[in-house]
Specification:
By secondary structure, the protein is an all-alpha fold. The protein contains six helices and no strands.
Length: 142
């Protein structure tokens, strides 16, 4: 066997090993990508029901106090869900939290009548809870 033939045999053997290694690396890369994607989705599903339940409870307490329609109660539940998502996110900046509290207050005021608003403002603890001021204050301390 001459030198050229030995070189050709080495290259051929190396190619036979290299092609399966490329497939193994590609499969491992895809497996890792799907695993990270699944973990990210599972983390979001854990926190979403908690905020939704708290928002529904807030909307129900507001509806009980002010005798709101079911449509209004659902609208407030969506508003409070957005509020909780911002306020409970540890990565939210303080400015964004303050803006969420201000916008929640503004939307509550725009939706309710003057009589309903005065009745809600008389219940200071519930009003602070609904606007998010109480939760924002505790998050700011952390």
């Amino acid at each position: 066997m001459c030198f050229a033939e030995k070189k050709l045999v080495l290259i051929t053997n190396f190619t036979k090993i290299l092609i399966p290694m490329k497939k193994v690396i590609a499969i491992l890369t895809l497996l890792l990508a799907f695993t990270i994607n699944v973990n990210a989705q599972q983390d979001n599903k854990v926190t979403a029901p908690k905020t939704s339940v708290a928002a529904r409870e807030d909307a129900a307490s507001l509806a009980k106090l002010l005798e709101l329609t079911p449509t209004q109660e659902n609208d407030f539940a969506r508003l409070f869900t957005k509020k909780y998502k911002i306020l409970e996110n540890p990565e939210s900046k303080p400015e964004l939290r303050d803006e969420a509290v201000r916008m929640t207050d503004a939307k509550i005021r725009a939706t309710l009548t003057d009589a309903q608003m005065s009745k809600l403002e008389a219940n200071k603890e519930l009003y602070a809870k609904l606007t998010g001021a109480a939760l924002n204050a505790t998050m700011a301390k952390k």
